[in-house]
Design a protein that fits this description.
Elements lengths: L5 E8 L2 E5 L3 E5 L4 E4 L5 E6 L4 E7 L1 H8 L3 H11 L3 E2 L3 H16 L6 H22 L12 H16 L7 H7 L4 H12 L3 H19 L4 H7 L5 H12 L3 H11 L1
Antiparallel strand pairs: 1-4, 1-6, 2-3, 2-5, 4-7
Length: about 260
């Protein structure tokens, strides 16, 4: 499945094994929190029968509204550091009990929207705090300006919403009203990757998704994703994945 929301899952008991992006396995144990950015390809591999978990699904628009300038922490962790699991999240249990007691005492709060907004912001700031601690990810090491981070975040959103992501950097730069050279400089400074690298990784995730989730032929997938022909698509896929599209489909479906 490809989720249309940013997803936060708190595992109370049991075990969860999923694959993200078509090529990365992620395990979640009790007391851990799974984080999945919007648009990410998710393949459930194993869910134990005793799983008990809570999930929060939140759109890009609401996430940006709630976190404000701190959205850069989430994006850096999800797209650059690829931090998908937080191990020590005991605070989530305390917050859950506290919140439950509030809503049990006030069934229909007058300031419901404000309360929910504050709850979400508190929850997500705790998540961001843990993300900053994990892998020594410190904002002090980030010399990017707020404007540069905003451009980079908008670039990521543009890619995720495109049906055919394999486009020239100049196309994305034009939609952002900046030059390709400036977009390249911003991406390198903020993430350490070129815009084309980000585009390629997003294209490959779409390739994995179509190969695993549909019965479309290689020719049909090539057309759907904007490749000129199936031969070009096959060579492109092999250069990135090391196997042909059909080899990937066959091998991976056997694993699943």
């Amino acid at each position: 499945m490809r989720l249309g929301y940013n997803t936060v899952v708190y595992c109370r008991s049991g075990r969860i094994l999923i694959e993200l992006g078509g090529n990365q396995q992620v395990r979640v144990k009790p007391g851990e929190m799974l984080l999945i950015p919007t648009g990410k390809l998710v393949q459930p591999m194993m869910v134990s029968t005793d799983v008990d978990a809570n999930a929060l699904l939140i759109s890009d628009t609401v996430l940006k509204s709630v976190l404000g300038s701190q959205i850069s922490i989430w994006n850096r962790a999800m797209y650059m550091k690829e931090i998908y699991v937080l191990e020590d999240t005991s605070w989530a249990m305390d917050m859950g009990r506290y919140t439950a007691s509030i809503f049990q005492n006030i069934s229909e709060p007058v300031l419901y929207s404000e309360i929910i907004h504050s709850f979400l912001r508190t929850l997500l700031l705790f998540v961001c705090e843990d993300l900053l601690r994990k892998e020594a990810m410190s904002e002090k090491d980030d010399a990017s300006s707020t404007h540069e981070k905003e451009i980079f975040n908008n670039f990521l959103q543009l890619i995720s919403h495109e049906q055919q992501k394999r486009q020239q950097v100049s196309v994305y730069a034009g939609k952002l009203n900046i030059t390709p050279k400036y977009l390249s400089a911003v991406c390198k400074k903020v993430s350490g990757k070129t815009p084309m690298r980000w585009i390629t990784e997003s294209v490959m995730e779409d390739c994995y998704n179509q190969l695993l989730k549909t019965d479309l032929s290689v020719k049909e997938i090539a057309h759907l994703l904007g490749f000129p022909n199936s031969s070009f698509f096959g060579q492109y896929f092999r250069d990135q994945a090391g196997v042909t599209p059909m080899e990937y489909r066959t091998q991976h479906k056997k694993i699943v």
